[in-house]
Records
---
Amino acid sequence: MDDQFKKIISHAKEYGFVYPSSEIYEGLSAVYDYGPMGVELKNNIKSYWWKSMVQMHDNIVGLDAAIFMHPKTWKASGHVDAFNDPMIDNKDSNKRYRADVLVEDHIAKIEAKVNKEVAKAAKRFGDSFDEAQYKSTNPRVMGYLDKMQGIQDRLNEAMKAGDMTAMKTLIEDEGIVCPISGTKNWTEVRQFNLMFSTQLGNIAGEETALYLRPETAQGIFVNFLNVQKTTRQKIPFGIAQIGKAFRNEIVARQFIFRMREFEQMEMQFFIQPGTEMKWYEYWKETRMKWHRSLGTPESHLRFHKHENLAHYANAAADIEFQFPFGFKELEGIHSRTDFDLGSHQELSGKKLQYFDPELNENYVPYVLETSIGCDRMFLAMLSESLQEEVVPDSKGNETTRTVMKLHPVLAPVKAAILPLVKNKPALTEHAKKIFDELKLYTNCQYDEKDAIGRRYRRQDAIGTPYCITVDFETIEDDGKVTLRDRDSLEQKRVTVAEAKAIILENCSEASLLG
Ligand code: GAP
């Protein structure tokens, strides 16, 4: 695991962002708990998403559907038959893998060889090095690239056709070994359904299989007409929802990137059939802007167009973020056609149609979906913001600080109120008064323990954008406090009212949405 990633995981635990679930019992694989700082950051992410998607759009409304749904829902949605991952076991290590991930990891190893050759050549040629030309002319690199493409094509074909035999042959042909045992002693590749099931005892003695929802989207589809009728929305309009989803992931790794219980923020936008490509482009851009608005640089975000489309989509792209382990999916934008509403209509026998007064006709609307994992967004923000920086200490010497440069709107604590020393009631009482006033407006912390420098470092480590220090001058002289800015380290004397105005203005969602 990359060093930076290890630091993120240990920082997240040390400062109360994320803990392994039921840790006293050795934890539960791919399940995590959010600590006091984590829950604030997560709530802020959800709140900013909700405000941007629901409150800022006249034609998008909210919903909070139940996690349990009628079992037929998952038959209609295709999840019972097609929500599978190909899995394979190694008979020597007894470890289970996702077959496609084994192949992708194998491709990544070849890519690492390409990158090594490129780095060597860049060093040799210096400023005159042209990477694109090198890759298209160097025979060894060209060989690697051809091989990668060949494997990728075979993988895509096998996945598209659901051909598990072809997948096994690919693993054998490439001589892929188990990372634990180092052997090629593989089982056949089998399809593994990712839904968790449980039982509902409704009528005495009779039990019905229930699924924990693997996506929040279906709660929106089955409520489409309820919402449309009660809100009298006209197409195009959207329904948004934030909620838990559950997937029995075969490969559980990379911390909160791939969890078995996670949270999604999804929006289904109902549109006229035939207009989906226009809305697909619109939502791709709108969602990309949302990510950039939080300060994520363009170079850390990119689109990835899907070649293998899910069973319900006619166009799809991911917004990928540069995680410490490479560019990976953060959010999906799918054009879901009328697949879901059409299937629910068919299986339930209930009409899920919209009467379009402009066209004077009934139709099953098409749907454009934006779907982002809240936990993945959380990990993206942790990775983006956690930094080590060399800064001057109070004596002007260089020191290293760990700081989370979270956008102030997302920061768990917006301001820390700090009396310069702890055993002077004049200072502590004054500081507490400021704290009692400010906490009515935003999330603040009062802290009097340890030297002021250490308290600043603690606040830097949880990403608090502002510290207010109450010192002797505040009491004896001007009533002004010192306002310290986390990023610039600038300290300025301001009145409490001025400090409050600066904090509230820069930490409010309105600063991003206005
Ligand atoms: N309704 C569409 C849907 O569920 P998806 O691409 O399977 O599409 C959407 O999931 C988003 O949910 C992903 O982009 C990702 O951010 C998040 N997600 C999916 N599986 C996840 C998991 N096991 N752990 C954490 N987040 C996950």
Note: Residues 84-191 form a domain with the Herpes Virus-1 fold (CATH 3.30.40.230).
---
Amino acid sequence: MRPRIVPVLTKLRFSNQFIANLPADSNLQNETRLVKNACYSFVNPIRATKPKLAAYSEDLANLLQFSTNDCASYDFLQLFAGNVVSPKSKPYAMCYGGHQFGQWAGQLGDGRAITLGELPGLDNTLYSLQLKGAGKTPYSRTADGLAVLRSSLREFVCSEAMYHLRVPTTRALTLILTGDHVVRDMLYDGNPQLEPGAVVCRVSPTFVRFGNFEILAAQRNTNILGQLADFVIENHFPEIKTKDRKLRYVELFEQVVDRTALLMSEWYRVGFVHGVMNTDNMSITGLTIDYGPYGWIEDFDLEWTPNTTDASTKRYRFGQQNAVAHWNLLQLANALYPLIEDVKLLETALHQYPDIYRNYHQSMLVKKLGLTDLNQVNSEFIEELEQCLSLTETDMTLFYRCLSNPKLLSAEFDGERVSLLREAFYEPDNINESVKLSLEQWLGKLVNIVNEGQVDPIRREQSMNNVNPLYVPRNYLAQLVIDEVEKGNFDMLHEWMGVLQNPYTEQQGKANFAKKRPEWAKTRVGCSMLSCSS
Ligand code: AMP
Ligand code: MG
């Protein structure tokens, strides 16, 4: 049954480009099944018993032309809790497949995400609005279609934080507590608990993933595969002007290679580890998508993964995200092959990935280190940097902030530059002489390169602080905020959201949000260890 219509919502101009242009599943039953010859299935969200707005993104609400009054209204809450459906909206769940942890997993699909339709932003972009955690869909398989507060809060905060960090990402408009309880075995150790449920409204120009193409290729449905590729090109890749159909698809692939390489270097820049880089979690437009057991690098460690489900092989560890993206792009190339039927063209594009990534990565590091020229960093220098960061437990975020200190460049600190990095070390008083020496040597090298370029130290500091954030959504802070919200206190969540809107600017009285991980958080579940249970 279609939920009741609230009159105020009739003003919302939902459009439905995705469903207007692509084939729907003809079965309207909401029951688990394999869906063939379709890109999505119609399905309505379920009711939340007692919805409560925990937070919303003012910045995004403004972009989507919701006034402050709109956001405070009963209708707004009901709409984004999934309790009403706007008259112009035709909610649906997408069909996609994917490679999970290196294996083809067959059909997956939106098991708990329901797209309401698209709304125009002030920037003239059409944004899809999607509720995550609003009940089962035909793609839910054996799961419940719901989401718990802790994971919803983590997705809500991190999406908006990434946006303000200028990392390509899907966004989040609302975090709503449903008032219902959800059963989860957080550590998969036979201890299921009742947890508060929540719904997040995610927002993005598109939620299409590599997996949307893979499932159609697996079903040998070249016709719909072509329709999906055409739709994606027309709506999300305006830069593709080529008329020849096959070459358009090749260009699409080249663009995805490029955007994905950029995304990987941006994740590295801010120290983000996705945790579940399965191909169903790879956006076709190069956005960060599906925030699950992600984590932020605190002490620099290329081997680190926050995802306990991936603990044995660490497939998705920090230092391997770039290589995994390349592998995932290979799966996308395979999926697009039936449209192109030319291995060489796809291979050529795929083989360009390492060079494209290296380029992005090096120019990103040039900026992070306050240098000016791409020639100033080669792979040997980067390797030495990464070795330095691993010699003693070093907070990546604070390390780069310290590196911008103008004093570092002064001869006065020759041989004593390590003291300027004190704040970044987890055990500054326990650094032995040989580690100190290696650090001094590398810092001396860096300073020589900087000084050769005759850079103004103050300008260098300003430009570095514009690419090296001070405030990132640290893992332990997320857990502290979750603890507060679970007790019914939303103040810290709102304060944190405010701080994360300006991640590059030091803010008065907000030092607590920039502090390195406290000792207790090193081993606490939810801080450095997360499972896929959400
Ligand atoms: P993820 O690991 O979050 O990327 O999810 C992988 C697949 O499992 C996707 O198809 C999700 O929609 C589905 N899924 C995850 N959690 C749930 C849930 N609680 N209910 C239904 N489907 C889910
Ligand atoms: Mg997913």
Note: The chain has 17 helices and eleven strands.
---
Amino acid sequence: MKQTELLIGGKEQAAVSGDYFDVLAPATEQRLGRAARAGKVDVELAVAAAQQGFAEWSSLAPAKREACLLKAAELVEQQGQERLLDLLIDESGSTISKARNEIRYTVDLLRTAAGEARRLYGQTFPNDHPGRLSMVLREPLGVVAVVSPYNAPLALLCKMVAFPLAAGNAVVIKPSEETPMIAIAFGKILLEAGLPPEAISILTGFGAECGAPLIDHEQVHCIALTGSTLTGQKVGASAAKRMVRTQLELGGKSAVLVLRDVDPVKAAAIVAQGIFTHSGQICMANSRAVVEDAVFDAFVAALKQHTTQLVLGDLRDEASCYGPLIHRQALHKVQQHVAAAIDAGASLLTGGQVQQGLVYQPTVLLHTPSDCSAWREELFGPVLSVVRARDLADGIAKVNDSDYALSSAVLTKNIHWAMQAARQIKAGSVHIGMHAFQSNALAPIGGSKLSGVGRSGGAYSTAEFTELKWISMELEESL
Ligand code: NAD
């Protein structure tokens, strides 16, 4: 049986309580191993180590921080083919192709962050008083608490760790309780790459037991959470009391707008990929499709045919489209929302059943009423709601009929329609000619409304994880 310990100041150690918790494999629902269960005392130890780590790491030359992150990228690339791939498959229920993509993206994030280490640009600006110089310096924040989710446990953790490190911060990580082992494996890679041991700690355990005391710790200077809106609301409220910087990447209910000029077969394949990848457990998944009347019937027919041909099952089968949901509660949540939608008047085009274990069939609901939970709430499962739009304006209004604003997509060949939609859709990103689940290490990823606050990626992350300081100086002797 696999067992992982906490990683505090570079040392693997048991929790002070000596407690562990079970880690289950979603594909079998069997015990994969156990992980140390951190509590408040462990938080104290990790934050104390991080304060020391911050002093050392932030004083290193940018070239050294860059070299460390580049080395980590190389190690992830090497270890990606074996250990990391297996962990992503076994611990998070990823298919082999999703796991490979996640490893590639992680490497890309590390290399992009490495470049950012040299780009902590400041500024000078004119001053109305002659003989005075004004300048702006960009400085790291200190100790950053990183709280991460289970759905892309390597890449999303890396994204919130690599950029703050590049800027000179130290990090204390609270990974998802569903995926502690992959987090520890990643932490060890960073240490092997030369990160000072105190600059990174990882506390495996539960939100209430070690996540909450971590974000409330007075020596934590920034909180980077990727997780559900509910958790984001709690973390944001708590951070506001201490006036601590937060970056909150939360839930989504993204929509794809399908316009009248598309090939319905190609459009259906794109929309299906945007929702069914990783069983819909993607924050940017396009769980809503708004389809113009003229192409609605042909699109729905193509979608049904495409969806019923998707291969589900063995995660190590290259043809597998997706696998299990993360746990039983996630499955029950999806089942309840689908049942409620059908009760409210939606019709089931396809799916709606458990395939095996925690694998839920790719499910398409037609005409989901806009006041029902399957339209309004994040299901985080393989469920797509398809509704009609009279025209472009009606389509945009339906896309915008959401409390979330993370990602979106527009399928059309007409550049004027595409740009009108792109300008009028309220979302953190709009993707034209592709689905809503896109990633790019340089892009400002994030949302507004219930989808969160802040942007991550490239220089946007550098801005989030640094503080500006204005320094002004008399150039002539004034004393
Ligand atoms: P979750 O909110 O249940 O948990 C996320 C993390 O927060 C976990 O590590 C958890 O232990 C911790 N946590 C929970 N309560 C806490 C508390 N009170 N204080 C501190 N930490 C606490 O989310 P999840 O189920 O692991 O992940 C799925 C969610 O994440 C979905 O809503 C998805 O949309 C979202 N997500 C968003 C993005 C994005 O970029 N916007 C990316 C991936 C996932």
Note: The mean pLDDT is 97.
---
Amino acid sequence: MKRVAVLGATGSIGRQALEVIDRHRELELVAASSGSQPIDGLAPLTQVGGDLTELLERARPDVVLNAVVGFAGVTATLWTLEHGVDLALANKESLVAAGELALAARERGGGRLLPVDSEHSALFQCLEEREASTVHSVVLTASGGPFRGRNRSDLADVTPEDALAHPTWNMGPKITVDSATLANKGLEVIEAHFLFAVPYEQVEVVIQPTSVVHALVRFRDGAALAHAGYPDMRVPISYALTYPERAAVDVPPLDLASGLRLEFEPVDHDAFPLLGLARRAGEQGGTYACAFNAANEVGVAAFLEGQLPFLGIAEVVEETLEQVDGAPAANLGELVAADEEARRAAERGMALA
Ligand code: MG
């Protein structure tokens, strides 16, 4: 039996994880948490809000599925890696904001870091721990979101409702807006850098509108391996929770006879500047990526409340990155301070606008 703790159990990933656990005899749900929704009786141990490390200490899980939304997921990521417990990571923000601290914690703890993000699960499977020197580049695909094909001026008046209508993936509001701005792909570029130790210039992003190809790895001999399948998060969730077993999942096999189309397009960086801003923040190092994430969270929340236009999210992020000092964080306390500094700078920027 594998003892599983699901953090963020009421969100889209959390609910699908519970479904996967329910259908797999070797997986036992021992703890669950939510941000604010009541979850009494969902698992033997439950917690709503608060410090998740207390729940993890009591639950003693073999694997933690971290599906918390945003920076709030950092402490659980660090606890899990530090304690040598396997981490199935859906909270990409924690690796973006705390990449260096997380890798150091994994080094000390010795547990496995298993990506749940579909693109990174795909890369993990294509790479299979092959020699880094054989890899030419990794390619993350993006659906392009609901605004694919629109130019910058078309995006001035789009509403939260428009942004929440994602064409291929059914997800929570934060990540759905991030998919519409391509900030999500920016976070994923940074996530890929930390997960697979690939330099930023070897991480490429391409639009693949049907979300059937999740990622590709190009090798130095000209061969490329792609990971394909229908977009269904139960697949990467199950892969991470049952690794290395690759348990059965109740999804239809890819139907090629019906005329599957696999088209690829370049990204329009003028319409979707957050992807480039994230990449630059990652390259700058230190806590710039943490600041990118913090300002983006502030901007997305304001957009969803109708207080910021769609294109304003990128403006807030760009201004915030100019204001923060980006100095590296030596510990969680310094990282939290950098996160808070960036949030204040983002709030100030919006108040002045
Ligand atoms: Mg993804």
Note: The beta strands are 2-7, 27-34, 45-48, 63-66, 86-89, 113-115, 135-142, 203-207, 213-219, 224-228.
